[in-house]
Design brief:
Shape of chain A: globular
CATH topology of chain A: Pyruvate-ferredoxin Oxidoreductase, domain 3
Number of domains of chain A: 1
Distance between the termini of chain A: 25 Å
Order of helices and strands of chain B: EHEHEHEHHEHEHEEHHEEHEEHEHEHEHH
Oligomer: heterodimer
Strand content of chain B: 15-25%
Largest sheet of chain A: 3 strands, parallel
Structural class of chain A: alpha/beta
CATH class of the largest domain in chain B: Alpha Beta
Strand order of the largest sheet of chain A: 3-4-5
Radius of gyration of chain A: 15 Å
CATH architecture of chain A: 3-Layer(aba) Sandwich
CATH superfamily of chain A: Pyruvate-ferredoxin oxidoreductase, PFOR, domain III
Chain lengths: 173, 417
């Protein structure tokens, strides 16, 4: 999750924006829920508080949905992106997602695409591709450049493919 | 080169450009990625003639830096929190011997209770150990201050700490201009020691000094800090000439020209404070801010001039002295002696608690109305305090406070004692 936020900040940087990515300063133990933040702006970002009212919420691990208050602070004018192959109904989110405009929410099988293209359950790249597809805030090409910067060689290429697959899955929805 | 890069890595790459000859580090928590990256850069030959020495403790890290510096090498190390405390004796020695070591502090809290997150308790504990102390407001400034730190350290033969907020800056990915080698070389000449252990010209460094001369040796350390008051702005100006951007200096005022209320602080919280100042200015509140870049030496005169027209002063600090209140505020009061300006202390961000714009806005508003306690603990949960105080009243064996509170909050299992 932390490197997803970092890669998103690199993506925004590549497009000339200012971006600030930082991990949550939560519990430092294996298996603890992890939160990472990214701010994107056209000017210098001076604010250092955690993001408490996100414009976009990306849920990497849907098993947390009913364990932690994930949606606190997410306005229904915001965007919600969940890594899952299940339906909102199966996730128990049927009523909740009805509050959002349809083009502000989406599920993406990011872990599945990661297994298919990268061979490992690392959904970050696919989630960022989906982020680009959902929000139009950054371009897929910039996401792919950022991924290749972070992971040079074949690993970067494979992750870039996973990102493209996730992007397409949203744009063709 | 402009990069989107982690603060720690940008600092490491900049240290490499400063051509240290010895880097010593104890690479476990509470360490940052700085020394990890520096070990890679040493291995790949990117630092040139540099020895990376993995030591067995923080005490050893600074002791090796002291030896290296005394032998004429440009020496660097980094630590924070308990690591800094563990090297305390060597911290005093480096300053007492006048050795120009540069050390990054990735500021973190000090236990107990155990806590790995950001505040300023660590470097503030050693504020009077004889080192120059800079506090970086942004990662860009962290990078730039390190270059100035080596220059200042070697010019005056005094060690310099560059304090960088742990996690908030060290772990943040941001847009940072990482300098090119040429301007760094132009700004920072080779280390020319004022004292060196040289077998061809032997001297002793570290003599025992009795009552007949101890005060004089100590006074000369004080004198160096007084010189630094003049040299720091000079080096900052020269830096701007070479690199084309402002960094360092003693203090940095923000919208203070006509400000009735002036907020003072150090480190990364100044970004959030400036946002709050802008928001309040938009609402017609006469408020400004001053960043203290150099905490030691303390910019007594510069601060006095910056604050002379203020009707009230608020000092925001990430540390405090039990039973007394703020630490930074004590120095601010000295700068304002003779003035009757009310000074309020806001203790904030302890152990990594987020300092939010909303809470600052509320607190500054209360201070502007002169309705605030001094010291004020930002976002303190009084219900938790009262409950725990009551427990202590109820029975003698009320148990460990930290564990009781965690249980009350449901953060760990079991019932409070």
């Amino acid at each position: 999750m932390v490197s997803a936020a970092e890669m998103l900040s690199i993506t925004a940087f590549l497009e000339g924006a200012h971006a600030q990515a930082f991990p949550s300063f939560g519990s430092e133990r294996m298996g603890a829920p992890v939160v990472a933040f990214c701010r994107i702006d056209d000017k210098e970002i001076r604010l250092r508080e955690p993001v408490m009212t996100p414009d976009v919420l990306i849920v990497q691990d849907p098993t947390l949905l009913h364990q932690v208050d994930l949606f606190n602070g997410l306005d229904t004018r915001g965007y919600l992106l969940i890594n899952t192959s299940k339906s909102y109904l199966d996730l128990g989110l049927g009523d909740y997602v009805d509050r959002f405009p349809p083009h502000h929410i989406c599920t993406v099988a990011a872990t599945k695409w990661a297994m298919e293209y990268v061979g490992r359950p690392l959904p970050n790249a696919a989630l960022l591709g989906a982020f680009a597809g959902l929000t139009y805030r950054v371009k897929l090409e910039s996401v792919q450049t950022a991924i290749r910067q972070k992971f040079p060689g074949k690993l970067g290429d494979d992750n870039a493919k996973a990102a493209a697959r996730a992007y397409d899955s949203i744009r063709t929805n | 080169m402009l990069k989107q890069i982690e603060g720690s890595h940008a600092i490491a790459e900049t240290i490499a450009l400063c051509r240290p000859e010895v880097i010593c580090a104890y690479p476990i928590t509470p360490q940052t990625h700085i020394v990890e990256r520096l070990s890679e850069l040493t291995r790949t030959g990117d630092i040139g003639n540099c020895q990376y020495i993995n030591v067995e403790s923080e005490f050893a890290a600074l002791s090796v830096a002291i030896g290296a510096s005394a032998a004429g090498a440009r020496a660097y190390t980094a630590t924070s929190s308990q690591g800094l405390l563990f090297m305390t004796e060597a911290v005093y020695n480096a300053a007492g011997l006048g050795l120009p070591i540069v050390m990054t502090i990735g500021n973190r809290a000090i236990g107990a209770p155990i806590n790995i997150w950001n505040d300023h308790s660590d470097s503030m504990a050693l504020r009077d150990a004889g080192w120059i102390q800079f506090y970086a407001e942004t990662n860009q400034e962290a990078v730039d201050l390190h270059i100035q730190a080596f220059r200042l350290a070697e010019r005056l033969s005094v060690p310099v700490m560059v304090c960088v907020d742990g996690f908030i800056l060290t772990h943040a990915y941001e847009r940072i201009e990482v300098p090119e080698p040429e301007p760094v070389d132009a700004y920072l000449p080779a280390f020319e020691p004022v004292q060196v252990l040289d077998p061809d010209d032997p001297v002793t460094i570290g003599a025992m000094v009795g009552p007949e001369a101890f005060t004089e040796v100590r006074y000369l350390a004080h004198h160096k800090h007084l010189q630094a008051i003049d040299v720091i702005p000079e080096l900052s100006t020269e830096f701007a000439d070479v690199f084309g951007r402002q960094a360092g200096g003693l203090i940095r005022p923000y919208r203070t020209e006509d400000a009735e209320t002036v907020v003072i602080g150090l480190g990364s919280v100044m970004g959030t404070i400036k946002e709050t100042v802008d928001e309040m200015r938009d609402d017609g509140v006469s408020i400004g801010a001053v960043t203290i870049v150099s905490f030691r030496p303390f910019p007594m005169l510069a601060l006095r001039v910056a604050l002379e027209n203020a009707k009230r002063v608020i000092v925001v600090e990430k540390c405090f002295a039990d039973g007394l209140g703020g630490i930074v505020v004590g120095s601010v009061r000295m700068a304002l002696r003779g003035f009757s300006t009310p000074i309020y202390t806001v203790i904030a961000g302890l152990g990594g608690r987020p300092i939010t714009q909303a809470s600052l806005r509320q607190t500054f508003g209360d201070a502007v109305a002169d309705k605030i306690n001094d010291p004020h603990f930002l976002d303190l949960d009084w219900a938790v305090i009262d409950r725990e105080l009551a427990r202590g009243q109820d029975k003698r064996r009320s148990g460990p406070i930290a564990e009781n509170i965690l249980r009350e909050m449901g953060l760990v299992g079991g019932k409070p004692v």
